[in-house]
Design a protein that fits this description.
The structure is a single chain. With 256 residues, this protein is an alpha+beta fold. The protein is 28% helix and 27% strand. Strand 2 and strand 3 form a beta hairpin. Helix 1 packs antiparallel against helix 2 and helix 3 packs antiparallel against helix 4. The longest helix has 24 residues.
């Protein structure tokens, strides 16, 4: 069931979203050669606690693995797509790209967002991968309007990505969001005609999150049972915003 939110609920989600923005904006400025992904984790955990929120990811269960995610951030470097685990041993170096994904629960409502950041000088292809992924999100957000359908969002990401020579990840998708981190509907980055294609209505809130590979769309999961990587070892980028569908158009809750 898709849960639509009223204005008071959207305002609560906005507060959560702005805290997520603040965390990611600070971490983006911290990304540099020699910084560990654990350094980012420590800074984020403090900011979330200082903001009076609960980290959405920490303690999130993985039933197939029988474990819970132990961090407030997913930090995925280079060929890591999503769910990368922070580590003091993982030191960023020039040429890397790093995707940082986090969410919070504040006053009972969730916000969720992700960015991909270059470390020092990166290759032209890596920069284009980041740019195309970010562009695909912005184009998809513009489709988050009453009267459109879910596939308008999904197809927009897929067309922009593939027309630029990249591929979308199919195993991991966006989602509805509200009082639960993951609500209906699922939001793939491609048109999956096996899925429902609901009409978009005011009050729906979607976490739209293109995950884009430089090479093939194939993925695998590392032995830690969390970190998803590209099958061919090529880079992957990830951007995400929490977006409310309103009569006035898309309202991105996770940026000012």
């Amino acid at each position: 069931m898709i849960v639509r939110k009223n204005q008071a609920e959207l305002e609560k989600m906005r507060a959560a979203g702005l805290l997520v923005f603040k965390v990611l904006d600070t971490l983006k400025k911290m990304v540099a050669e020699g910084v560990s992904t654990q350094d980012l984790e420590v800074a984020a955990e403090k900011m979330i606690a200082d903001g009076g929120a609960r980290a959405a990811f920490k303690g999130y269960p993985n039933p197939s693995a029988g474990t819970k995610f132990p961090y407030v951030l997913c930090v995925s470097v280079n060929d890591e797509i999503v769910h990368g685990m922070p580590s003091q041993k993982k030191i960023l170096k020039s040429g890397d790209i790093v995707s940082i994904d986090t969410g919070v629960q504040l006053n009972g409502y969730y916000g969720d967002s992700a960015i991909t950041v270059a470390v020092g000088q990166i290759s032209e292809e890596a920069q284009r991968l980041i740019d195309v992924t970010r562009e695909s999100l912005e184009l998809a957000i513009d489709k988050a309007r009453p009267g459109n359908r879910l596939f308008d969002i999904c197809g927009t990401v897929e067309r922009h990505v593939t027309s630029n020579g990249f591929t979308v990840v199919r195993e991991f998708v966006g989602h509805g969001i509200g009082t639960q981190m993951h609500e209906e509907p699922q939001v793939p980055n491609y048109v999956d005609r096996r899925n429902e294609n609901p009409r978009l209505k005011e009050g729906m809130v979607l976490a739209i999150e293109p995950m884009v590979n430089a090479g093939s769309p194939g993925t695998r999961v590392k032995p830690d049972q969390w970190t998803a990587v590209t099958e061919d070892g090529k880079y992957s980028a990830h951007f995400e915003h929490t977006v409310a569908i309103t009569a006035d158009g898309p309202w991105v809750l996770t940026r000012p």
